[in-house]
Amino acid sequence: MYFPKTWAKAFINSLEREDTDIEEGIQALIFLADKVKALPGIVSGRIASKRLQELLHEETVTADPEAVSSGLKIAVRFIILLVRKNMLRHINPVMKEIRKLVNEKHGIVEVSLEYVSPLENESRIMESIKKRSGATKVIINNRQNPELIGGYKLRIGDEVIDASVRSQLDILKNTLQNAQLSGDGGY
């Protein structure tokens, strides 16, 4: 079955059981997932997992096997398991869930901010989000979007705060169209 949150919890639990730095494990998983996704053909099943295990072992083990981090070892085992269970195609949602769970655990809120030009009051927005959510830290992923015309669009989890000029124009357009259709005419 495909449950990204379950797979994410399993990966994090493995890291915690081995007393491994979670960020190190996540970075190793990202590195390996990119390597495996770049392989030609479909990588799934027991035979492919054996070949992949040999390939990853060659790729990650240096002349000094002690130099290989426990995070990398756990990431290799996790990737092999995903391949064996034919779940590698779901690695991106699993990694998103891993990031969400880690952020929740550490009181971090990750937000997406779209704007036309950089905002002068970004620090005020961060402080407002901290107060509202009780977060210890706010990470803002900025993206310029000229289609907004002005203002910004903020996404916090499933919640969207749309303070863009584009949104306001769309609302005005819909209001005028509805008034015209209803024959109101007396704006």
Can you describe this structure?
It is a single chain. With 187 residues, this protein is α+β, with helices and mostly antiparallel strands. It has two domains: 100 residues; 75 residues, no CATH class. The protein is 57% helix and 15% strand. It has seven helices and four strands. The chain has a four-stranded mixed sheet. Helix 2 crosses helix 4 and helix 2 packs antiparallel against helix 5. The longest helix is centred in the C-terminal third of the chain and has 17 residues.
Question: Can you give me a brief rundown of this structure?
Answer:
The chain is α+β, with helices and mostly antiparallel strands and 187 residues long.
Range of strand content = 5-15%
The side-by-side strand order for the widest beta sheet comes to 2-1-3-4
What share of residues is helical?
Answer: 55-70%
Spans of 5+ residues with little confidence (pLDDT < 50)?
A: none
- Derived from helix and strand composition plus strand pairing, the structural class reads alpha+beta
- The average pLDDT value, as a whole number, equals 83
- Distance between the first and last residues' Cα: 55 Å
Please give the largest β-sheet.
4 strands, mixed
Oligomeric state as shown: single chain
Annotation, overall tally of beta strands: 4
Rg computed from alpha carbons, rounded to a whole number of angstroms: 23 Å
Number of helices: 7
List keywords for this structure.
single chain, 187 residues, alpha+beta, 2 domains
Task: Please write out the topology.
Layout (H helix, E strand, L loop, with lengths): L3 H14 L4 H16 L7 H16 L9 H15 L6 H16 L1 E8 L6 H12 L3 E8 L6 E6 L2 E6 H17 L6
Parallel strand pairs: 1-2
Antiparallel strand pairs: 1-3, 3-4
Helix pairs in contact: 1-5, 2-4, 2-5, 3-4
